[in-house]
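Quick check before the chapter quiz. The format below is the same one you will see on the exam, so make sure you can read both the input and the output lines.
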Amino acid sequence: MTSLKQLLKLAALGLAATAAAVGLSTTLPLPTQAQSGLTIFGGVDAEFRLPYSIDGNMPHNSNARFYLNVQRTKLPRDVISLEIDYPASFTEIGGRFNPDAIELRSGEWRGRDVIPVKAIDWNQAQNRIEIIPEEPIPANTNLVVVMSNVRNPRRFGYHYFNLRMMFQGDVINQYIGTWPMEIASETNRRR
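Here is the expected output.
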């Protein structure tokens, strides 16, 4: 009789071990082949990454100011228009622009001299802002797009703003680069 009890205990232990092994194999991910190369966060290639800084970079601040820099090397010819695309997530979580408070400046970081603008069109349906200067912006000019009175989204997020420009003599916009922006981060770090 004792041998039957021992046999039943061993069988029960075997079933429990099998059930545990099956349960673990279905809940734990199986190892897979890694991709070649090293990408920690992904993002924008260095040659297309544009610098920026933000004043008042706090969640839901309605007085934020974006300084979107474009280096002179990105303007090989005279520029007749700029187009900035932003992600829908920016406005979906409360972000807004004031097209009357957008200007172009020559120079670096925060810019110096204001460049007169003929028109600024904020197309909310297409998540796009188009800026047309009164005169073509000369080649090899450091440029800053200053967006004042921006209302930041309610919470922190990474928002990629893409820049396309039309050069004198062209008929389509060309991709220039991307500002990978940390918006509503409660810091005023320069990128």
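If your answer matched, good. The two ends are 78 Å apart (CA to CA).
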